[in-house]
Amino acid sequence: SQTIHQWPATLVQPVGSPLSLECTVEGTSNPNLYWYRQAAGRGLQLLFYSVGIGQISSEVPQNLSASRPQDRQFILSSKKLLLSDSGFYLCAWSRDRGNEQFFGPGTRLTVL
Amino acid sequence: KQEVTQIPAALSVPEGENLVLNCSFTDSAIYNLQWFRQDPGKGLTSLLLIQSSQREQTSGRLNASLDKSSGRSTLYIAASQPGDSATYLCAAQGRGSTLGRLYFGRGTQLTVWP
Fold first, then answer.
1. How many C-beta neighbours within 10 Å does residue A104 have?
2. What is the pLDDT of residue A61?
3. With 80 as the cut, is the pLDDT of residue A93 above it?
4. Which residues of A touch B45 (CB under 8 A)?
5. Does the distance separating the beta carbons of A42 and B101 come in below 8 Å?
6. Hey, CA dihedral for A16, A89, A57, A28, is it positive or negative?
7. CB-CB neighbours of A101 under 10 Å
8. Is residue A40 classed exposed, middle or buried when 0-12, 13-18 and 19+ CB atoms within 10 A define those classes?
9. Quick one: pLDDT at residue B80?
């Protein structure tokens, strides 16, 4: 069966510090991968998606970037965090675009 | 741009009631629609996925319907239990250039009390 992991589970960072969140998927190959953010008072927003290694599409211009160094690894990064980057970050995968998406446990990021 | 609305925003009911959660979307050109459950501080659990060509899907006590032409989906929960307490989210998936992108509603927060 497939499993999706995210770490860390929670993170508190000062404004201006860098960020690296990791997502890995087990039990499948060549998944489509997604990063979403759930901010207080707002719905889930798609940030990035990837259909393969090194292939990243950005949905919303922002202070964040994503990379996919391996088939089942997806990383969300920032060079300098802003207060507005606080939120709950969720990684998801699907077998192909259009298929059912499955979500990880999430990372709660608080920027102070 | 697709906009998804969920009504009601919150619902509190006694155990045993049958419930209907509503989801509406502005662009009927969707690829599919997915219902999720989210427990506090947790990720999303996929409940049901309805393809655009389907009218409904069932899983246990859950039944989801889709009326694409009117831009509506409903999630029916039979014989509700306290363990059903959670936030329920619907998400419409776009077609064509937006395939793979889920457009989420803000959810219905459900509380089922014993």
1. 23
2. 66
3. yes
4. 103
5. no
6. positive
7. 24
8. exposed
9. 97
Distance from CA of A69 to the nearest CA of B (A): 21
Retrieve residue B45's tokens: 């659990």
> What average pLDDT score do residues A17-44 get?
93
SS (H, E, C) A42-93: CCEEEEEEEEECCEEEECCCCCCEEEEEECCEEEEEECCCCHHHCEEEEEEE
Note whether A34 contacts B100, CB cutoff 8 Å.
yes
Rounded-to-integer distance, Cα A81 and Cα A88, Å: 14
pLDDT digits (tens, 9 = 90+) for B8-34: 999 999 999 999 999 999 999 999 999
Tokens of B70: 């009117």
Least confident of A3-17, A94-108, B1-15, B93-107: B93-107
- Which chain A residue has its CA at the smallest distance from B48's CA? A100
C-alpha A77/C-alpha A89 separation (Å) is 12
